[in-house]
Amino acid sequence: MNKKLIGIDLGGTTAKFAILTEDGEIQQKWSIQTNINDDGKKIVPDIIESIKHRLSLYEMTSDEFIGIGMGTPGTVDREAGTVIGAYNLNWSTLQEIKKPIEEALNIPFILDNDANVAALGERWKGAGENAADVIFMTLGTGVGGGIIANSQLVHGVAGAAGEIGHMTIEPGGFECTCGKKGCLETVASATGVVKLARMMSEEYSGESTLKEMIDDGQVVTSKDVFDLAKGNDSFALLVVDKVCYYLGYACGDLGNILNPNHIVIGGGVSAAGDFLLEQVQKHFKEFAFPQVYQSTKIKLAQLGNEAGVIGAASLALQFK
Q1: What's the pTM value of the predicted model, to 2 decimals?
Q2: Domain spanning 4-120+306-319 has what CATH number?
Q3: Of 302, 312, 307, which Cα lies nearest the Cα of 51?
Q4: How far apart are CA 320 and CA 317, in angstroms?
Q5: Residue 193 near residue 222 (C-beta atoms within 8 A)
Q6: How far apart are CA 77 and CA 29, in angstroms?
Q7: Cβ atoms of 159 and 114 closer than 8 Å
Q8: Phi and psi torsions of 197, nearest 5°
Q9: Which residues are registered as beta bridge partners of 152?
Q10: What DSSP state is assigned to residue 175?
Q11: Per-domain residue ranges of the chain
Q12: For residues 131 and 262, is the Cβ–Cβ distance under 8 A?
């Protein structure tokens, strides 16, 4: 019998689930709302209940599964199967995850950080082409990432490896939520792009729709900035070039240190597509060592919202 995998991508709004073959093909997927009330105490019971319901619906048993993998926000202790500091889940204290899920479902369980599992997903079934060395960078509300070297996730001594968003890219720059100044996240996340545009608009005096929107106090999004740049708005082009300069700088440093097969860029900001990619590549060439530029490819992510469940499921392959 070909056994299956379950992948869970736990977020502050929804928990996404998928049942996959061991080759990574999604056979079913569903989601439930994440109930963060009462210090997030209902989250794990809800996950257990949802999986039980699905197995019963399709008359499946626990021995049909290799294992369950889950990606979660927060600081993960992979050995103990616990999470702490996932504030968007109201998990400020240590949470037992592995033990209650394994006891209730009788299926081996493993978890890791959400950015790491998205990296695994893109590496396994997306733009990473299952290469041994892949870096994944996700540009959303913040900037996250995951590093895979020699086919293994790099975790670091405190589990904080791959915090690409907190590379210092502009010493003394914008304050970051982490307490440092000048992190990549402050200029390349969705909010960072807008913050950069507002700062740069103070010194720009030419004709520009983007400049007018900012001066007029209108709500501006990172999508607006990229859309206007694609439409040749002179000021929006300057802002996008600056964002891509920072991203190319970060990719250059990452490439020079690790020389991966691929640096994959995903998340909401990456929806700007080839327009973003071409600009980042231009600046990557400026900062990358020649052999790195020639061998490391920068690519756009391919899996979108499915990267998390696919990568989470791949964690469970170690139970084979």
Answers
A1: 0.92
A2: 3.30.420.40
A3: 312
A4: 6
A5: yes
A6: 27
A7: no
A8: -60, -45
A9: 149
A10: B
A11: 4-120+306-319, 130-302
A12: yes
Report the b/e string of 10-28 with b at 16+ CB within 10 A.
Answer: bbeeebbbbbbeeebebee
Which pLDDT belongs to residue 257?
97
Q: Which residues, listed in sequence order, are joined to residue 147 by a DSSP beta bridge?
A: 135
Report strand pairing: 134-139 vs 262-266: parallel
Closest CA to 235 of 200, 270, 269: 200
Token pair, residue 296, equals 């490391």
Residue type, 155: H
Beta carbons within 8 Å of 120's beta carbon, 6+ residues apart: 112, 146, 148, 153, 310, 311, 312, 314, 315
Structure-block tokens of residue 34: 């994440």
The pLDDT tens digits of the residues spanning 59-77 come to 999 999 999 999 999 889 9
| Domain 130-302 bears CATH identifier 1.10.357.10 | no
Query: Where would I find the H helices in the chain?
Result: 37-40, 43-57, 98-105, 114-125, 185-188, 190-201, 209-215, 222-230, 234-258, 274-287, 290-295, 307-315
Helix axes 307-315, 114-125, angle to 10 degrees: 90
Q: In angstroms, rounded to a whole number, what is the distance separating the alpha carbons of residues 263 and 113? A: 19
Q: Tens of pLDDT along 246-295?
A: 999 999 999 999 999 999 999 988 889 999 999 999 999 999 999 999 99
Enumerate residues 6+ apart whose C-beta is below 8 A from 4: 19, 20, 21, 22, 27, 64, 65, 66
